[in-house]
Specification:
With about 800 residues, the chain is α+β, with helices and mostly antiparallel strands. The chain contains 21 helices and 37 strands.
Length: about 800
């Protein structure tokens, strides 16, 4: 079959313009899973609405998720909207401990729905996930408008100022007064695009009353002002809408057609110049259908999405509106990214992938560019939360699953897979230098900050324990298992206390591991202060290796030398550098039986193990180090296996570290960004406690609703002050706390060790009025006066 014939069949079968890959991001408890459940119901995917509190939602299917009422693991599900559109949705966790789930999900998404709690407004974790999704077009959904204290206009203003965006109001809230209780009740929205009032029947989730807004309607004034604001905001970046306003609409804002508005809003959203904002109350089934309409109207298809990051900057990327991405001018090339691994009780290991170019078919042979291994895949699966549906093909933009023992053994999170569209192409016609070494959208794993010791109950439980830990870390690479070679103790490291608590729960109750789990303690590292002594090892059978270990230089990593190749060593911000060989070129005059990638892959584990052995102060694993393999290495020309290189390199690197003087090591500890919301009356005690007991560095103290005074925030504060917003009674009290006191935001940085159990302390100091959010900043050297207390705490 010619490619032209294939293209014709492909284009009629799969319309990329109708596909949306989106993620739901938000602060914890903003209503992500509740909103997702309503989307599935209104799309016809499910016929009954689940409840987070009842533990029967589709996307929260892990026992720990259902018992705790929180999302722990991102879940992928596909459904159709209005028949023509296919939405691939990923529901992500909101808790900071599971930030890696958000990071890896964002790597394969084309757009996001940011959900905000209209009572709480823009929360610290909202700001964090917003920054993590920089570059992705977004829609904002202001949820929980039915709650007491919900403020639509107040939350929109916070969005504009804190996120530095221009908001496009797609709809605004409608409240009615209960004739009996006289209370104001949220029950619908004013659609500013189509000029209609939508009222939901809270007793019947499928019943909506739609009314045209005319001059006699009480919402007419808001419609006129809202339309005016919308057209003028769009006109700042789109001259076409101005032409439509003057020529087609005769200078009347209400006469601008919905089609013209939607086209302009879509253009503004995709160019990141503005963000559509909608409102609703998902738990009351209000506002979800307009949100689904906005997703298909304003968020990008795979052929409109930002191109993926590639390790070869010179490799060309073009967009074909029918077939999606074309990489390296090769229309037959299929490229996919493995971004998640789970273990199913029936199907075994399941690898989630996103296809970027070409078509991936069942039973094709694929090549893993990370490991240099080729293998045959089995059946392809489309996941609907934890319910699989088998398929034969995955198209560009599709999110699917690979299963079977072949994929289990050969793919891990972050691996790039390549193959050809048709079987007869095989792997022979690949561009070896670019396509077979292609890495797409690299996934960086944040360093773990807490440890817990894991011990088998008996010697016979050791192997099952290791198998269970291997499954945990395979599914969640932000969990790290290390072993102290001197004591034999196994440590499990994670992103937070809750993260490790969930891991412990799964080990004991789901994986039935017979283990004892120790107390959770802060994770410390060591680093080299100066470059180590260079050391060489030579063997009689023809192996030679020279290496040196250096402190990481971020500038060198960002701008590597032409003769260097950098390889990440998973966690702890460690890298290996392979210098280009002084005699051989891997692409031209390569004389060895074994490929270059095999030599690299034999050295990477040695580097990892050597650095994990730890430094000389506290035996902590080394971080922010670079292992440099010099350009004079040798292996036997006729060697078909280079397994000896593994033991030789491990011993060489271990000896380098052993011979280094203790004075060349320093202890590193995790430093956290801390944002404390506190009323004016509690400022003194809170700052005193942070500065003294918490060893914190106070960065700023600002009004809670105007956190930053940099130039950009001042600009958008002006935008927020000048934009039209509907009346909102909570605006008057936006800057006041529970007792009429001005609310302040204290931003600080503090050692994680000193912030353990801070929640109890802040509640005690402020009598329950204060709250805080904490997230990882980076590793910093422990001050000399604190080293002894750190060592005593760790080895207690």
């Amino acid at each position: 079959m010619s490619f032209r014939v294939f293209l014709r069949r492909y284009a009629t079968k799969h319309d990329l313009s109708k596909v949306r890959n989106i993620g739901i991001i938000a602060h914890i408890d903003a209503g992500k899973t509740t909103t997702t459940e309503r989307m599935l119901y209104y799309s016809g995917k499910i016929n009954r609405i689940g409840d987070v509190d009842q533990g029967d939602t589709i996307t929260d299917y892990l026992p720990q998720e259902r018992s705790r009422g929180i999302t722990i693991q991102s879940a992928a599900i596909s459904f159709n909207w209005k028949k023509d559109f296919k939405i691939n949705l990923i529901d992500t966790p909101g808790h900071a401990d599971f930030t890696f789930e958000v990071i890896r999900s964002l790597k394969v998404l084309d757009g996001c729905v940011a959900i905000l709690d209209s009572v709480a407004g823009v929360e610290a974790q909202t700001e964090k996930v917003w920054k993590q999704s920089t570059g992705l077009p977004k829609i904002c959904f202001l949820n929980k408008m039915d709650r007491v204290g919900a403020g639509f206009s107040r939350t929109v203003k916070e969005l504009v100022v804190k996120m530095n965006i221009r908001a496009l109001l797609i709809n605004t809230p409608i409240f009615t007064v209960d004739p009996v209780t006289k209370e104001s009740k949220f029950n619908g929205v004013l659609d500013l695009i189509y000029g209609k009032q939508l009222i939901w029947d809270t007793n019947d989730p499928d019943k909506i009353s739609v009314t045209d807004i005319d001059e006699e309607h009480e919402g007419y004034e808001d419609l006129v002002k809202g339309r005016e604001a919308l057209v003028e905001t769009l006109g700042e970046t789109d001259e076409t809408i101005i032409d439509r306003f003057f020529n087609d609409a005769n200078g009347e804002y209400l006469n601008v057609s919905p089609e013209a508005l939607n086209k302009s809003i879509r253009q503004a959203t995709l160019s990141l110049s503005a963000t559509p904002v909608l409102c609703g109350a998902s738990f009351r089934n209000i506002g979800v259908q307009p949100l689904l309409d906005a997703i298909v109207n304003y968020l990008p298809s795979p052929s409109e999405a930002r191109p993926p990051e590639l390790n070869h900057k010179e490799l060309s990327i073009t967009q074909n509106p029918k077939t999606g991405l074309v990489l390296n001018k090769n229309p037959n090339l299929c490229v996919a990214l493995a971004f998640k691994v789970i273990t199913d009780a029936i199907r075994g290991t399941m690898i989630f992938i996103r296809v970027y170019s070409g078509v991936l078919r069942s039973n094709h042979t694929v090549y893993n560019t990370t490991t240099g291994v080729k293998f045959k895949i089995g059946k392809l699966v489309i996941m609907h939360a934890n319910i699989p549906e088998e398929g034969n093909e995955l198209y560009p933009g599709d999110i699917g699953v690979l299963t079977g023992s072949n994929v289990s053994d050969n793919i891990r999170t972050g691996d790039t897979l390549v193959t050809h569209v048709t079987k007869k192409d095989g792997l022979r016609s690949f561009d070896k230098k670019k396509e077979l070494t292609l890495k797409i959208n690299p996934i960086e794993i944040p360093p773990p900050v807490f440890n817990a010791a894991i011990e088998p109950k008996t010697l016979g439980n050791k192997k099952p324990m290791e198998d269970a830990l291997n499954q945990l870390t395979r599914e969640d690479p932000s969990l790290v298992v290390t072993q102290d070679e001197e004591t034999g103790q196994t440590l499990l490291s994670g992103m937070g206390e809750l993260h490790l608590d969930i891991a412990r729960d799964r080990l004991l109750n789901e994986l039935n591991a017979q283990v004892d789990v120790g107390r959770v303690i802060v994770s410390y590292k060591e680093a080299l202060n100066f470059t180590s002594k260079e050391k060489t090892v030579e063997t009689d059978d023809g192996y030679r290796l020279t290496a040196v270990i250096e402190p990481l230089d971020e500038e060198s990593r960002a701008n590597p030398a032409a003769n260097e190749e950098w390889y990440t060593l998973a966690n702890d911000n460690n890298y290996m550098i392979m210098e280009q060989h002084s005699q051989y070129d891997q692409d031209k005059n390569w004389p060895f039986q074994v490929p270059y990638v095999a030599i690299v892959n034999s050295l990477l584990p040695s580097c990892l193990v050597a650095l994990q052995r730890g430094g000389k102060i506290g035996g902590f694993p080394l971080a922010s180090c670079v292992v440099r393999i010099k350009n004079d290495w040798e292996v036997p020309i006729d060697a078909t296996s280079i397994s000896p290189l593994l033991s030789i390199s491990r011993q060489l690197l271990t000896n380098i570290l052993i011979e280094e003087d203790q004075s060349n090591y320093s202890v590193l500890e995790p430093i956290m960004n801390v944002d404390v919301n506190v009323q004016q009356q509690d400022m003194g005690p809170v700052i005193q406690d942070l500065s003294s007991a918490r060893k914190a560095n106070i960065l700023s103290i600002d009004d809670e609703n105007n956190v930053s005074t940099n130039e950009s925030n001042i600009k958008f504060q002006q935008v927020a002050d000048e934009m039209w917003l509907p009346k909102d009674s909570t605006m008057e009290f936006a800057k006041l706390g529970k007792e009429g006191q001005a609310t302040k935001m204290v931003r600080a940085q503090a050692p994680l060790k000193e912030m353990v159990a801070y929640n109890n302390k802040i509640r005690s100091i402020t009598q329950g009025r204060g709250s805080f959010n904490m997230y990882y900043h980076g590793m910093q050297p422990v001050t000399h006066d604190r080293v002894k207390s750190v060592l005593a705490d760790y080895h207690h």
